[in-house]
Amino acid sequence: MAKGGKYISGFGNECASEDPRCPGSLPEGQNNPQVCPYNLYAEQLSGSAFTCPRSTNKRSWLYRILPSVSHKPFESIDRGHITHNWDEVGSDPNQLRWKPFEIPKASQKKVDFVSGLHTLCGAGDIRSNNGLAIHIFLCNSSMENRCLYNSDGDFLIVPQKGKLLIYTEFGKMLLQPNEICVIQRGMRFSIDVFEETRGYILEVYGVHFELPDLGPIGANGLANPRDFLIPVAWYEDRQVPGGYTVINKYHGNLFAAKQEVSPFNVVAWHGNYTPYKYNLENFMAINAVAFDHADPSIFTVLTAKSVRPGVAIADFVIFPPRWGVADKTFRPPYYHRNCMSEFMGLIKGHYEAKQDGFMPGGGSLHSAMTPHGPDADCFEKASMAKLVPERIADGTMAFMFESSLSLAVTKWGLKTCSFLDENYYKCWEPLRSHFTPKSRNPTGPN
Ligand SMILES: O=C(O)Cc1cc(O)ccc1O
Ligand SMILES: [Fe+2]
C-alpha cells in the first residue's frame, strides 16, 4: 500500500486487481468465460494494435457490470477552448511567456475540468496519430455525473494548484501538486476538485509514454519503475436517473452521450494498459559533479518517442531540487538555440534561470531555434558567484514539455487569454558586451 491510498506499484507491468467486495471476480485461466464470475461483462481495452511486438503491446481486460457500449448515441457539443487547429492565428517565433493563467471564481461561474480545458499550443495531426497539444486546465467544480475519454491521445496531467481526485475505470487516484498522472487513450475518467484548481496537460497523439533508456547510467536512476502507482479496482453500481454524460474527445472535437449508469462499474481488471501516477519527489537526479552544465535530457521523467531514433514527439523533463557542485562552470542553463520546441511550466518556487517574471501557474514557450537563456540578472550573479556546493531550486519544481515538433500557439494563447507577458523580451535587454580582447580566459587551458 502506498501513501495516500491503495495502489499497485510498477511501470508498464502486467497487473491484476479485484475490488475486495467481489473476491474471485477475475476469471481464472481465460479472458472470456462463457459466463463471467458475478455475471459480469468482459471487455478488452486496446492501447496498441493487436499485432504490436510484445514490448509495445498494451491492452487490459475489464470485468464490468455493463459494457461501455450501453449508451445513447453521441452528439456534438461545444468544445469550448479546446482546439486542434494550428492555423487559427499567424505564427510567432518570439520568446513567449505567460503570467499565471487565472482560474475562474466558483462564485462567478462553475467550471469543471472539461469545460476548463484551454489549448495553448500544439502541432501535428490527430487523424494520422502524430503530434501533440499542450492544454491548461482552469476549474473550480467537480465533474458531476460527467466523465471524459480521449480517443485522440494520452493525457499527461500536471496539477499545479489544488488536488485532483480522479475516478477511472481502473480505480481512484488522488493527485497532489508535485505529482503527475497519465490517463491513456480511451480510458474514462472523472475529476473532483476541492478549490480553484489549475494545471498543465501534455497530450500526445498515437504514442504512449515510456521511461527513457538509461544507457551508461545503469539499471537504476531517474524515475524508477517502482515509484509509478496504478489504482486498484473500485466500482460503483450506481444508477443515474437523469442520465450520466460520457464525453468523448474525438478528432479534437467534443461529443456527449447519455447513459443510465456510472461508467465506474469495473469490478475487476487485468492487463498492462492502465492509468498511473508518479510523485516528482521520487526522481533520482543525476548531474555534473566535475564541471560544465549537462543538457536537460538528464532530467527526463517520461518520453513519448517518435519513429526517429532518439527523437521524441515529446519529453516530460523536470528541474528538481538538487546540489550544484560544478567547478569553473557557469552553473545556470546556458544560452542556446534548440531545434526542439520548449514549453516550460512552474509548479512552485522560482526557476533557476529567471528569479522573477516566470511564476507558478504561468508558462513560457521557446520555439524551434528561438534564442533564450538566463535573464541578465541571473547571468551577472552566476558569473560572479563563488563556486561552493549549493542547493539549487530548493522548494521549486519547474518542468519542460520538449518536442521535436514545431509548435503553433492558439488564438487563446496569443490573443484572447490576456496573460501573455508583453515585456518578456526585456529580461535580456540589460545584457552588455563584456568583451575584453586583451584578457585571457581565466579558466581555460592558456
Ligand atoms: O531553456 C530552459 O530554461 C530549459 C533548459 C535548461 C537547461 O538546463 C539547459 C537547456 C535548456 O533548454
Ligand atoms: Fe531552453
TrEMBL record:
One GO BP annotation of this record: L-tyrosine catabolic process
Keyword Nucleotide-binding attached: no
CDD domains: cupin_HGO_N (cd07000)
Residues annotated to bind homogentisate: 351, 372
Active site: 293 (proton acceptor)
GO cellular component: cytoplasm
Pfam families, per the entry: HgmA_C (PF04209), HgmA_N (PF20510)
GO molecular function, one term: homogentisate 1,2-dioxygenase activity
Domain Homogentisate 1,2-dioxygenase N-terminal residue range list: 6-280
Domain Homogentisate 1,2-dioxygenase C-terminal intervals: 282-435
Keyword annotations: Dioxygenase, Iron, Metal-binding, Oxidoreductase, Phenylalanine catabolism, Tyrosine catabolism
Enzyme Commission (EC) number: 1.13.11.5
Role noted for this protein: Catalyzes the conversion of homogentisate to maleylacetoacetate.
Entry similarity comment: Belongs to the homogentisate dioxygenase family.
The protein's assembly and partners: Homohexamer arranged as a dimer of trimers.
Protein name: Homogentisate 1,2-dioxygenase
Organism: Nannospalax galili (Northern Israeli blind subterranean mole rat)
